[in-house]
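Worked example (supplementary).
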Amino acid sequence: MTAKLTLPESPAIAPALPRTERGTSVCFVVDDEPGIQNIIALAAKGFGMRVECFANAAKAIAALDRFNPSLVFLDVSLEGSDAIDVIRGFGAAGYRGAVQLMSGKDPVTIEEVRRVGERHSLVMLPPLHKPFRLEKLRMLIDVHLKSPVPKAGGGASGLTAKENDTRIDLDAMLRKNYIEVWYQPKIDLKKMQFAGAEALVRCRHPERGLLSPAAFLPDADQSLMIRLTEKVLLTALADWPRIAQAGFPFKFSVNVPVCVLSKLPIHTLVRDHKPDHAKWPGLMLEVTEDQAMRDIPLLHEVATQLRIHDILLSVDDFGTGYSHLARLKELPFAEVKIDRSLVANCGENKENASLCNAAIELAHTLGMTAVAEGIESTAELKTLIAMGCDFGQGYLFAKPMTRDQLLSSLARHAGTRA
Ligand code: C2E
Ligand code: MG
Ligand code: MG
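After joint prediction of all chains, the assembly is encoded as:
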């Protein structure tokens, strides 16, 4: 594995998911916290949406004269007003898009507000509880853009309840074996060589085609997540020998929610199913930053046990949680994955560049490796290399792909270095 990767002009692998026409969608953020406005704007703009932010009800209602948003993020408490004021105004204006309530208030209050929205004939999505993750937001927006907005009041659309329901039944998908594991290569940025692959789940739905996790993970409860994680883990362990045989015995990474980490006996599964191969390098489990911070003692205990079995932990989506950077030192991680919202445009955007730099330096000071997620341009890549980032993933190198596509891709590179 000595030859360097040549960077593709455009990604070599076809897009994993169909693209939808997103250019014209408008999203409103009605929230009086600038930090929340910014994070939602960041996520929605990433999908090509136009974003308009308002801190109070009157301004948001007045803006309906100029815009026809397809989605409104609505906080319960606003500057000098509240969500009920917005609901009344939007209801009176005959607003037909979707309303995503969000609040840190107790679930009973939020549910009451949602019901008020329905009484005003608005399409009220299941409420979002603060704090929430950027990835959760991205999933919501992705699902929203891919699915037509259901009409308020269900039957009014002329569709049956079942036809109206765009959710995916993960339980059935698992039972029917429609769940697949795809892989996105991870690149060593110093040697410019393949250094690993992240397992990413997909669902091959018989009617709706290939679906991204955004379509089925947000609704999954803990028991489904346990079954899903087991499926992904065992598939990755079973796929590894083929990749190793092709001359690339690199480490696979698997995404695992913290709640699953404490319930599923991963070390036992790995002990019983790991490849019987001298070069098996162990596994990396990716845990998101926000979840990791919730129960640090538990994470220490689990991490210690996993380490005995060559399983290390990585902190995923780093930079999007609410934690202070310095708290990273309390966590038993071997790797930091810098979220793509920080990596985006880090070649030109000074703020993102300094955040990436700080994350890389911190990781190195704490003896961890740094991985940049979502590298899409050579400008980003050059900046990250100059900062000493160890690894990278992103469409610039390759999109997620099936195991067989990964094998072909590796074979092509092996061919060029022969
Ligand atoms: P993640 O673990 O942070 O994975 C990275 C996501 O970014 C993947 O989306 C990947 O396809 C996407 N990505 C990679 N490079 C680029 C790029 O250059 N540009 C852009 N725009 N996107 C890029 P995907 O596969 O849709 O997964 C989304 C999230 O779903 C994952 O975020 C992870 O949180 C979750 N997920 C995926 N597979 C699993 C799984 O097996 N188990 C669990 N628990 N969660 C999973
Ligand atoms: Mg991940
Ligand atoms: Mg991530």
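Two points are worth noting when inspecting this output. DSSP finds 16 helices and 17 strands in the chain. Residues 8-23, 153-165 have pLDDT under 50 and may be disordered.
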